[in-house]
Design goal:
The structure is a single chain. The chain has 148 residues and is mainly β. The protein has helices spanning 24-30, 33-40, and strands at residues 59-63, 69-72, 76-77, 85-86, 95-100, 107-112, 118-123, 133-136, 141-145. The strands form two sheets. The protein has a six-stranded antiparallel β-sheet with strand order 3-4-8-7-6-5. It has a three-stranded antiparallel β-sheet with strand order 2-1-9, with no helix packed on it. The structure holds fe (iii) ion.
Length: 148
């Protein structure tokens, strides 16, 4: 797990204590410009541009910001949305859901619980049995392929 002793704790967006706390400068250094925009500024990558949209590798998807385990490839499905889509997180406690009223509509934002980074949104139009579609930016993820 990544940790920083020098950064200040910042909980302006919510009250959840984070396991990984870095200053904005440290995030900027650690992440690419696009990752910073998406993960730390709740941006969205353009549809069909991310490296995991059509990825069918077996493995585990981790948070690109802090390395926390987020999604299993077993839960990945082809949604046609242009973003990697999952029916559920690897463990429920890996993510945090927030109401998001931006863009004049109400959506549910998905954050990495460990570091508070923005991952994407979750919708109720996924396949059974969960009926959920976790619509996640590729650049918020890093796959660890399964050993063969
Ligand atoms: Fe994270």
């Amino acid at each position: 797990m990544l940790r920083s002793r020098t950064s200040k704790t910042s909980t302006t967006e919510n009250e959840t204590p984070r396991e990984v706390v870095l200053s904005e400068d440290e995030w900027r250094r650690r992440l690419t410009r696009e990752q910073y925009r998406v993960l730390r500024k709740a941006g969205t990558e353009r549809a069909f541009t991310g490296e995991y949209v059509d990825c069918h590798l077996d493995g585990t998807y981790h948070c690109a910001a802090c390395g926390a385990e987020l999604f299993s490839s077993d839960a990945k499905f082809d949604s046609g949305s242009g973003w990697p889509s999952f029916t559920e997180p690897a463990v429920a406690s890996a993510v945090e859901l927030h109401r998001d009223r931006s863009l004049g509509t109400e959506r549910t934002e998905v954050l990495c619980r460990a570091c508070g980074s923005h991952l994407g949104h979750v919708f109720d139009d996924g396949p059974l049995p969960t009926g959920q579609r976790y619509c996640i930016n590729s650049c918020s993820l890093s796959i660890e392929a399964a050993q063969r």
